[in-house]
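Practice set, problem 2.
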Amino acid sequence: MTAAQQLPALAAPATGTTVTCVFAILGGDGPAAPAAGPEGGHEGGGALRLLPLAARLRALVQDVPAADFTEDALRRRLADPARLEVCARAHHAVVTAAAAGGPVVPLPLATLFTDDRRAVAALDARRQQFLAALELVTGRAEWALKVSAGRPEASAAPAAGHPSPVPAGGQGAAYLARVRGQERDRTARQEAALRAARHAHDTAAAFAVSSVRRRPHGTEVTGRDRHQVLNAAYLVDDARAAELASAVRALAGTYRDLGLHVELSGPWVPYSFTGQTAGEGE
């Protein structure tokens, strides 16, 4: 859980026409708020602005229509994939634009307060966590590493519920031997993929100050023909990013004979690490 995820959302019914939506926490020496445009925040909201906090921190906020961000309205929006995507993209665009000018602590989507006063009180209570997070991510970025394997051919084993008939006599023994051999091959491929995933993670982690391994994505993300064996994020010094990329390229060449696909992406805003202190994570 990140420091941001411990913050309350809208804790009381709004009394005005707008509420304060907080996107991220910035240090005192960062740039001004991103200009209006693609990074202009939520539709119908006011201009992005910076709200002064304790310890020279600043919150990047926007006044948004209270009627659009009631509990019921948010529930409907988050349950609608298309509307959720629009909302998430607007939030991410603001955070990304702010991060272009310096380190930020991104807050969760729809971090809302009834007014600036409540926002300041809640955020100031977390100032030590925000300061530690900013120190950790300064001069660093998040990189994502994913490793996936091709699934065995569908013909390698009978489909569930439709077993193939076992031939009689000596042919039956040969058939069973083939099935056992196919199962051994599948097991060997799975074990090789898992070993490669561990090796890939250890290789990338050697360039990082912190890392996080997540649950691999399912087929709804990877596609039915791929099986993800590693889904991890790494916090890497900007000066070491090229070394990381070179090491991952070498891994991709090594794993190609195993039928593994290696994907490195970044640099990203360090969403995965803004609640950690140095040394936490894997």
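Problem 2, part (b): a different protein.
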Amino acid sequence: MIYNPEMETLSITEKEELQFVRLQETLNRVYNKVKFYKEKFDQNGIKIDDIKSIGDISKLPFTKKQDLRDHYPFGLFAEPIENIVRLHGSSGTSGKPTVVGYTKNDISVWSELIARAIAAAGGSKGDIFHNAYGYGLFTGGLGLHYGAEQLGAAVVPISGGNTERQILAIQDFKPKGLGCTPSYALNIAEKMEDMGLDSRDNSLKYGIFGAEPWSEEMRATIEDMLGIKAVDIYGLSEIMGPGVSIECHVAQDGLHIADDHFLVEVIDPETLEPVEDGKDGELVFTTLTKEALPLIRYRTGDIASITREKCECGRTTARMSRVKGRTDDMIIIRGVNVFPSEMERVLLQIEGLAPHYQIKLVKDGPMDCAELHVEISDELYSGINGDLKSEQVQILERKIKQEIKSACLVSVKTMIGTPKSIPRSEGKAIRIVDLRKSGPVMLS
């Protein structure tokens, strides 16, 4: 089902005309209402009338997360606080938090985009939707909640945590849809098995997973364990929250961007020059309809590519690839750049491993190095009678090192642990633990 056929199947010409009209409205809004943008445009000699097409967007300056932090809390708002109906924000664990405001119309637009997203995932009016995204300042819980209600679904606002309660609700309420991080979906499935349940024996038909990078191999594992269609949803609080883009359940081949509301670019993060469609680079978004916090050319830090080919589902929106990683979570091992999701892709193809891992960054003398912590599967652990020094485990360890070296071009110290030895996630998974500093730094 396509929730809004008029907007989701626009021709290229119709879409670009709409984007340009909305871009002009947004530029006038930020110039007249946001001191930061007025000063930036004036300093760079930018006149709004010089922007004559969406192709001229490259003439405009970038906005970065630090700009939001520098104007904390409300300095980039284009509306006075009396017109703001909701505030969300980041955790602020890596600096000052970013604060995002929404007008009543912003909430209405967001709800519609989430309704589109759930429909693209396979949802429909009358569904029960089990929402295990966290509620609060994090945008995931409330974002999915309002959108599911707009679609006409009944929402179970269970939030994250207390996994046994989650499973009881799934058994009793029989939802069709599940929303949470992919790592927590695995946690739910594993807990079902631990409780003596068949994790595939459930009412679920589709899952909407996001908030952390995940691989095709992780998708296959989740779909197999829960017996569902698993789709990737993308968003970031500064732009709106979840619902900026989502995969359709028909093709599961790229995330459909709501490009009647967001103008997307992909740039080389080093040169800041645009890269061609199909090539990886940093995603940059310009909001086209946001009232409270309109942003111009916002650098997301997320690495992906885009395509503008029509999808088999019938939607004509631009599509982005899965996020390969973030410019700030890329790790450097002996001079080689590696994204954790690249290692995940390799690990989930190796028989004998559970779908959980953690990378610990440590010092080896003056050099940085990485320890890759993985878990042996329950089946293999039982087969070797719990002997982690067995020849089978040694063969497995050599295979992991060889496959990682071949795919990621790095050598890692591999630590194979017992089943359930890596902490499970009730939200975003902790993939990287940086032990090179005075205390551990957790990175999701």
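Answer key, part (b): The mean pLDDT is 93. The CA atoms of residues 130 and 178 lie 5 Å apart.
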